[in-house]
């Protein structure tokens, strides 16, 4: 019976990793769609979000089933509860990637932004894609140094997010009303994506150490 339980715990972890990989693919593709005004790629990101949603439901069902049937304790309980939390966080990251793709699709055949605004948002999107890749590795390895790196790198996204507001307020930056809306929304989506990456990092730190200090990042809904 214990062997079966361990196999189910391992499967739960593998499914979370697969979900994170899908989210990483989504944000990377959304960044490319934003850069190149690629309509087909943007639509693929939007369509693929259904798979991430289904993965979340599957992970949650597995976790609840384990809680009901096995009544895990100590470290095993931390694994199952953390999986429930992480599935929601990773699903939200997938939603944010879809939102970025929505903007790219909505501005086709043009890019959503131009000039400095385009450059800043692309850098944010590329940094978000890096965070997503780090999240995958973190789920695979539970590396606390990598968790700390994700938290540190989030400051880069936050700094670029502040730049988007500076551009909106810059009278010398020729932005249309639509570009102002796109810049504010994209900046918010990508900044929130980074925040969710930090949430994953802190939950993994809790999983490894059992220390609840700073284990949760409250990320407002977009």
Automatic annotation (TrEMBL):
Single GO BP term? intracellular phosphate ion homeostasis
Q: Does the keyword Lyase apply?
A: no
Give the UniProt family note.
Answer: Belongs to the PhoU family.
Any matching Pfam family:
PhoU
Keyword Transport (UniProt): yes
Q: Which UniProt keywords apply?
A: Cytoplasm, Phosphate transport, Transport
Cellular location of this protein? Answer: Cytoplasm
Which organism encodes this protein?
Answer: Bogoriella caseilytica
Gene3D superfamilies (alphabetical)? Phosphate transport system protein phou homolog 2, domain 2
Name-wise, this protein is Phosphate-specific transport system accessory protein PhoU
